[in-house]
Amino acid sequence: MEIVAGAVDDEVVTPGFDLDLELLQNTFERVNYFAWDLLGVGEVIGPCVAVEGAYHGHHVVVQVVAYPPDDEEPTMKIDMTRLPP
């Protein structure tokens, strides 16, 4: 998300989000691996939730990253002058 106007104009921030881990895990037919990787060790993606298992008969690996890749452009802009005091 990119901040528009105000003292931090053009600053890019990552908004928080919620992830229902139980729902994610229960989506799989079988889970072989399910973990929170705080440091992103061995990967360049950084912190993530990783799930490996079976989904509709296929072997899949899902990684939900905490932060977008560095080359990803902001998809939202927030105008700081329009926020309530």
Question: Can you walk through the features of this model?
Answer:
The protein is mainly β and 85 residues long. It has one domain. The chain has 1 helix and 5 strands, in the order E-H-E-E-E-E. The chain has one helix at 21-27, and strands at 2-4, 30-37, 48-55, 58-65, 77-79. A 3-stranded antiparallel β-sheet has the order 2-3-4, with no helix packed on it. Strands 1-5 form a two-stranded parallel sheet. The protein is elongated and about 50 Å long. The relative contact order is 0.26. The mean pLDDT is 83.
Question: What are the key terms here?
Answer:
elongated; single chain; mainly beta; 85 residues; 3-stranded antiparallel beta sheet; 35% strand; two-stranded parallel sheet
Topology of this structure?
Elements: E1 2-4, H1 21-27, E2 30-37, E3 48-55, E4 58-65, E5 77-79
Parallel strand pairs: 1-5
Antiparallel strand pairs: 2-3, 3-4
**Integer-rounded radius of gyration:** 17 Å
The tally of helices reads 1
Structural class: mainly beta
* Domains (count): 1
Helix content: under 10%
Q: Estimate the strand proportion.
A: 35-45%
Largest sheet: 3 strands, antiparallel
Shape: elongated
- Cross-sheet strand order for the largest sheet: 2-3-4
Number of strands: 5
Distance between the termini: 20 Å
Element order: H for helix, E for strand: EHEEEE
Average pLDDT score: 83
Low-confidence stretches: none
